[in-house]
Design goal:
Blueprint lengths: L3 E4 L4 E4 L7 E6 L10 H19 L3 E6 L17 H9 L3 H18 L15 H13 L3 E3 L5 E3 L15 H4 L17 E5 L19 E2 L1 H13 L3 E7 L3 H16 L5 E7 L2 E3 L2 E2 L10 H6 L4 H9 L7 E2 L2 H25 L11 H16 L4 H17 L4 H18 L8 H4 L2 H5 L4 H6 L3 H15 L3 H13 L2 E6 L2 E6 L1
Parallel strand pairs: 3-4, 3-9, 9-10, 11-13
Antiparallel strand pairs: 1-2, 5-6, 6-7, 7-8, 11-12, 14-15
Helix pairs in contact: 1-13, 2-3, 4-6, 4-7, 6-7, 9-10, 10-12, 10-13, 11-12, 11-13, 17-18
Bound molecules: adenosine monophosphate and zinc ion (ZN).
Length: 496
């Protein structure tokens, strides 16, 4: 099966076919850098990372852009209210530029803590004012936008018949809930701002288009300008949280397609359901949010948090609980133990058995891939990993089988990024080898072949109930500096 993605544009799962064979251009609405990003934001960002990892696993060349919104995102997500950056500036008694850099740095640190593949571009809105101006200028020229005496520039939604096609909102239905602009300067109350003029606004630019008045850009035009600058007029994938769908993404489609005349602006739209706390959206404005750092400060690892955020499919709402993080820890320890064991067998630290595991690995690999091909179903993919762990724990892998199992785990981790790395050499090979400075592979060769043979002979003796011989072999191993540790999965060697 090929990758199927649920496309908000068509409201169904569709086979994913990028415009150019083998290449994928994706854009993700990034953070508004006015406070610490919360883990709900990262639920949405993680979908982007997962999609990139899976596409790269499938052999695509991915070009990924995630923006930073550092101006123009007003409190009501549309044209009204105050700029979130300025509220933060007042709150923290810093200028908004400093606020922006401070929280952008925090966002970038969180990407590292949560093991993201860093997007190829992380553009800032404030550094793309000229690109926004060029689009606004063109929209004015084509009659899709108009300027009012205050200097504000609006997009005229009636000039774009496709308005509503992404969110499935019908223009007439939108009347409700839209109060007529106090200033009454819009031709249609649903027209949205491309450029705003407000002398009190701290972040201001000379208008980057002819005849304009000094001001600042609307939030929606930022994403159109940054996505098309780096990815061209037609993106393959655009993602965001479900609250971005309207008005933000609807407006992006309208202004981008009106500007280029080359629809579709994006072929596949993916929207992530919210992370909830006690049934309510986790939101900065609600004050019910948990930051990445708060989770780490409680002693959970980035991988555990990543796992907890990824284990529910992105199109299902997920409820955050601290117990969920404990469950993540338990689950990941199971994976870790199983990975440690196959690493030891593959490197001769633990006796090998007869199982080459070829069918088991093929089954796990196929189940894992099929789950992700089905609209990135992470819960099914993780189920495939745990079924693999269960099967492995019952098996007696050969050296080659254990090595193949290691590679299977490595692929699962490469795609999900939430399983953790293979246990470090200290756990697999024992402290003495680690202290010797050897890595995993070097350490493996440090277990001499004759020692491995002695261990196998001791096993055979025990099986034959020749305990005297088994004890003699154990003592012989001890004499050579090796200790046998018996585990439920069988014995393993550690430096004595
Ligand atoms: P913001 O920093 O508010 O611009 O949000 C950044 C991204 O996080 C956007 O794509 C939002 O849709 C998304 N987002 C915000 N709150 C949540 C949440 N509780 N769960 C999932 N995604 C969210
Ligand atoms: Zn955006």
């Amino acid at each position: 099966m090929a990758l199927q993605l649920h496309n908000t544009l068509t409201q169904r799962k569709e086979e994913f076919v990028p415009a150019l064979p083998g290449e994928v251009r994706m854009y993700h609405c990034g953070p508004t850098v006015y406070s610490s990003p919360h883990i709900g934001n990262f639920r949405t960002f993680l979908l982007a990372d997962l999609l990139r990892r899976f596409l790269e696993d499938r052999g695509y060349r991915v070009h990924q852009v995630m923006n930073v919104t550092d101006v123009g995102h007003l409190t009501n997500d549309a044209d009204e209210g105050e700029d979130r950056m300025e509220i933060a500036a007042r709150r923290e008694k810093l200028d908004p530029w400093k606020i922006a850099r401070k929280y952008e740095d925090e966002f970038r640190e969180c990407l590292a803590k949560l093991h993201f593949r860093v997007p190829h571009e992380i553009p800032r809105a404030t550094e793309h004012i000229a690109e926004m101006g060029a689009i606004i200028q063109d929209l004015l020229r084509k009659g899709h936008a108009y300027q009012v005496p205050s200097g504000n520039v609006y997009f005229a939604i009636e000039s774009f018949p496709g308005y509503g096609k992404l969110s499935k909102k019908v223009i007439e239905d939108l009347e409700e809930g839209y109060r007529v602009e106090v200033k009454g300067e819009k031709r249609n109350p649903k027209d949205f701002a491309l450029w705003k003029v407000d002398p009190k606004h701290i972040m201001q630019w000379d208008a980057p288009f002819a005849g304009g008045v000094r001001g600042f850009p609307g939030w929606h035009i930022e994403c159109s300008a940054m996505s098309m600058k780096y990815l061209g007029p037609n993106l393959d994938v655009h993602t965001g949280g479900e609250d971005n769908l309207f008005p933000h993404h609807e407006c992006e489609v309208a202004q981008s397609e009106a500007h280029t005349g080359r629809p579709p602006f994006a072929r596949y739209w993916l929207h992530v359901k919210h992370l909830l706390v006690d049934g309510k959206k986790m939101a900065k404005s609600q004050g019910n949010f948990v930051t990445v750092q708060q989770v780490l400060d409680k002693g959970y690892s980035g991988v555990e948090l990543r796992y907890a955020l990824m284990r529910v499919h992105y199109r299902q709402t997920s409820n955050f609980t601290w117990a969920g993080l404990d469950e993540a820890r338990t689950a990941l320890n199971r994976v870790r133990e199983s990975r440690g064991r196959v690493a030891r067998i593959a490197t001769g630290r633990e006796p090998a058995g007869p199982d080459d595991l070829a069918p088991e690995i093929a089954r796990a690999d196929a189940a894992f891939t099929t789950a992700l091909e089905d609209d990135l179903n992470t819960s099914e993919a993780l189920a495939a990993v745990f079924e693999f762990v269960r099967v492995l724990n019952k098996a007696r892998p050969s050296v080659a089988g254990a090595d193949a199992a290691r590679r299977a785990f490595a692929r699962f981790e490469d795609v999900l990024g939430c399983l953790g790395s293979e246990p470090p050499p200290s756990e697999v090979l024992g402290r003495a080898v680690l202290q010797g400075g050897a890595g995993l592979e070097a350490g493996a060769s440090a277990v001499p072949a004759e020692v491995q043979t002695l261990l196998a002979q001791r096993q055979a003796a025990r099986k034959a109930k020749d305990f005297a011989e088994a004890d003699r072999l154990r003592d012989e191993l001890a004499r050579r500096g090796w200790k046998i540790v018996d585990t439920p999965q069988g014995p393993r060697l550690e430096p004595a």
